[in-house]
Amino acid sequence: SSIHNLSQATGCRIIVPSNSTDSERRVQLIGSQEAVDRTIALIRRFLEKGSWDGVDEVLADDERGPSLVCERIYVDELDMPKRAELWQASEDGLHDDVELFIRGLPAACRERDLWSHLCSIGASDVAEVLLLRRAGRSKGMAYVIFHRHDSALLARSKLDGALASSLAQLSKEDMLDSRLQVSFSESERCVKGRHSVYGSDMIGLLLGSK
């Protein structure tokens, strides 16, 4: 019964030959390296303690496994090796490109800080600011949606390459000369498909699969 439970919990097949004496009995383990290693560790624990006491708790913890984390990832966060090749010709986008993606924001920057800064540089035509977070903490990235394309162009020209420290009061450990990276949102262009500035389904192009 204990061998069966151990096998079920670890995913390792445990074969105990029945035609050998107790002193010569050899156990055969079949499974992935991880499953075999877990099984050996638990068997050693049994041999050290002389009983299965406590092993059930270990197996129960293993069965629970790590907690699952659900997180929304946007296209602009992905590594897109083909983007550099496509960016030059599509830099200014089309008249309906009104969404920017910003990287390199300081951790202390909030939506209101970014909104206020945009207004101070003359790009006040802001429809929405979406700061990306993980477990409540800023990822240092944000989407900004404007009502007009010319406002998005102005904001990009003023923010791209600007010091991140201009957006929020930084702590001493954050006082670095990091700079913002600003581009038109590829997420928005994904939605447009062939009607985007690329004139094609750009997901495959940017990921290098087409």
TrEMBL record:
Domain RRM: 98-187
Keywords: RNA-binding
Cross-referenced Pfam families: KH_1 (PF00013), RRM_1 (PF00076)
SMART domains reported in the protein's UniProt record: RRM (SM00360)
UniProt keyword Transport present: no
Protein name: RRM domain-containing protein
Source organism, top-level taxon: Eukaryota
Molecular function, one GO term: RNA binding
InterPro entries noted in UniProt: KH_dom_type_1, KH_dom_type_1_sf, Nucleotide-bd_a/b_plait_sf, RBD_domain_sf, RRM_dom
Keyword RNA-binding: yes
